Amino acid sequence: MTRPPDQRLLSELATYDPQVANLSLALREVILEEAPDAIESIVKGYALAIGFSFTGKPLKDGFCHIVAYSTYVNLGFNRGGLLPDPNKVLVGKGKSIRHITIGDLSELERPHIRRYLQAAIEQVSRAQPRPAARSKSNDRSKTSSRRKRN
To answer: What is the predicted pLDDT for the residue at 126?
Structure first.
């Protein structure tokens, strides 16, 4: 197991059919195996959604999400419209988001699931360069600037 699910996630999933809850948790596990540093964001609306990003901003910077419905889950890709789709499994007609519908645990064993996740992770990694570490001299200059203004 990668990391235990948040208690809030478990509470929300408890209201779903056990098959859907287990499927959601298993898909979460696959995502976190591919992106162990991902930050999860839980949103409960008409359905339970778990967004994954590296910045904590799942709408702006997210690479994928899980949406739990009554009998299945969707693995959504925030920029799925730009992902290559050699397996022709991405569904959606919107400008950006595409998804793969998953109804059974065995579907998580399909190799293309991880390939699409890896492509989505690579996509956001190219779009969001990691900020360079600030040097101590930069930190001091910002402090002294603030002092001058006050």
So the answer is: 79
Q: Quote the pTM value.
A: 0.82
Q: What is the DSSP letter of 82?
A: G
The Cα-based distances of 135 to 18, 138, 141 in angstroms read 50, 5, 10
Residue 1 has pLDDT above 60, yes or no: no
Can you tell me whether residue 132 is helix, strand or coil? coil
Q: Which single residue is written with the structure tokens 């959604």?
A: 49
The answer to whether 27 and 75 are in contact (CB under 8 A) is: yes
What structural domains and CATH numbers belong to the chain? 7-149 (3.90.1150)
The dihedral of CA 13, 39, 66, 29: what is its sign? Answer: negative
Which amino acid is it at 143?
T
- Cβ-in-10-Å burial (0-12, 13-18, 19+) of 114 comes to middle
Contacts of 33 (CB under 8 A, 6+ apart): 2
